[in-house]
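WARN  no MSA supplied for this record, continuing single-sequence
INFO  ligand: heme C
INFO  echoing inputs
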Amino acid sequence: MRPNSRLSAAIIAALVALPATHTEAEELRGKALVETNCARCHAVGSNDTSTHPDAPPFRTLSKRYPIEDLEEALAEGISTGHPDMPEFVASPDQIDAIIAYIRSVQDR
Ligand code: HEC
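INFO  complex generated
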């Protein structure tokens, strides 16, 4: 008798189904976060223009360095090299969402 086997099967099914929807939801959360915190200066979409003349559009960031490098910068609070920007310290799950979103808008 394994009373939990039905539950385990349900959990496994959920985990298998997760990746696609997970990424999409993550990207949407990231989009909302950058629209709130970054879009004031940066272009955050796939063909908009940064309102701040010095702020690089997010879709070009991967040309400067690997997107993964942003993770550390966000965790520490992007402030260095970011003179006009209010310090923004993201929580780990906000960071994952922001990275997922920024990755999704890169020019390839
Ligand atoms: C008040 C305006 C402003 C806001 C808000 C802002 N930025 Fe910036 N950001 C800038 C400017 C200006 C630069 C260019 C700084 C420079 O080159 O010295 C920049 C540069 C960057 C860079 C490139 C840094 C580098 O070393 O190449 C990244 C990454 C970045 N911003 C991420 C973000 C993220 C993520 C947010 C939202 C959480 C954000 N910024 C919000 C103004 C802003």
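Residues 34, 37-38, 40-42, 52, 54-56, 61, 64, 70, 78, 81-82, 84-85, 88 surround heme C (CB under 6 Å).
INFO  checksum written, moving to next record
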